[in-house]
Amino acid sequence: MRKNSDDHFRFKRNMTGVRCNIERNSDQQMSNEELKRRQCTWVVQNDFVERIPVDKQILFSWCNINLYKDDSNPGSSSTDREKILPQEKQILANVSGNANPGELLVIMGPSGAGKTTLLNCMTFRNLKNFRVSGLICINNLPVRQIQLASQSAYVQQDDIFIEYLTVREHLIFQSLVKMESHFSYDERLDRVERVMKELSLKKCEHCSIGLPGIKKSISGGERKRLALASEFLTNPSLLFCDEPTTGLDSFMALNVVQMLKGLAESGRTVIATLHQPSSELFQLFDKICLIADGRTAFLGTTTEASSFFSELHLPCSKNFNPADHYIQLLSIIPEKEKECERIVNGVCYAFAKSVLGMKISKAAQEVEVTIKLSALLKINKTEY
Ligand SMILES: Nc1ncnc2c1ncn2[C@@H]1O[C@H](COP(=O)(O)OP(=O)(O)O)[C@@H](O)[C@H]1O
Ligand SMILES: [Mg+2]
């Protein structure tokens, strides 16, 4: 009987821990088509991934983020920052955390929990009609939007491309727009070449980007990688991605997440929100941040998550996708609101009181104390 196709391969990491090699198991046979498909997608060309030098690596943290939507008066003043006014809806409540260089941190949670809003707070985006308080820090120092933008890249969920351009033309155009003015044209072309190799786009460099489903186009996975490539021209140390796998089949999603993991392993700090990751994807995450009802329900490694929920007598059963388990556990189901809220409150409270939760809040408090002292000395403070 034919075994599961994955049994035919052994995935091996090389010295840098980045490259994925596929080795054919000699006593097993697999169709040429399947082998070709897997090799095309799986031999991730991470040999070319540029390492980020230690002095450019980023410890990214967010401290006590509170975000309110004022329904009666959008764009209300930011006085009384910590007070909830009667007409306001709190969307994020005291959310803190951090992501280290070399780590792929994935923000997960039920729909409407506040994942995108948190990512927006982290990147100072789309916050016009909200009242926000808290700090965003790089290496424990608060930053403003402009400082963050110069060191990071943000890959949006739906990227807009000019359909008539080829992949190569698009990247050259982006290099002219995005790279700093001191780069010569040849240096920009070199960078484009390098980024195409890093993100496995050489194969389709002369293909038109097109419009999915309307005009012959590159594949969904290539489109996502092109969005990443556009942001990579500036070689950022910190990368944010909102739902990078949405609209991709499971195999392509795996390919994109494998790539994000490779980029993290090269010294970058990678933060992504993911909707319903498969168990295969879940295993690739270094850390997960679970958001429920605008609060942190958990932040730590996948192994720590497993122990945390087991200790709460809410373990994930064997052969069940842990991501699905956590998301279901933290969802507010219509007509069962009270019961679900009780579980969510319990989990959030338990995490806040856990060793991991206390460590995060202590780090946030330390940053705040430093800032208060700095403010006294008239040094920068974060402003939304
Ligand atoms: N512009 C907005 N105005 C009012 N409420 C909003 C706005 N954006 C988001 N929200 C609310 O904030 C909550 C979190 O939304 P979001 O961050 O998009 O969730 P997620 O990304 O986890 O699905 C939801 O209850 C949503 O209705
Ligand atoms: Mg979202």
TrEMBL record:
Keywords: ATP-binding, Membrane, Nucleotide-binding, Transmembrane, Transmembrane helix, Transport. Coiled coil: none annotated. Residues 76-318 form the ABC transporter domain. InterPro entries: AAA+_ATPase, ABC_transporter-like_ATP-bd, ABC_transporter-like_CS, ABCG_dom, ABCG_transporters, P-loop_NTPase. Its main location: membrane. It is a multi-pass membrane protein. It comes from the Eukaryota. GO terms for molecular function: ABC-type transporter activity; ATP binding; ATP hydrolysis activity. It is found in: Membrane. PROSITE patterns: ABC_TRANSPORTER_1, ABC_TRANSPORTER_2. GO terms for cellular component: cytoplasmic vesicle membrane; plasma membrane. Belongs to the ABC transporter superfamily. ABCG family. Eye pigment precursor importer (TC 3.A.1.204) subfamily. This is Protein white.
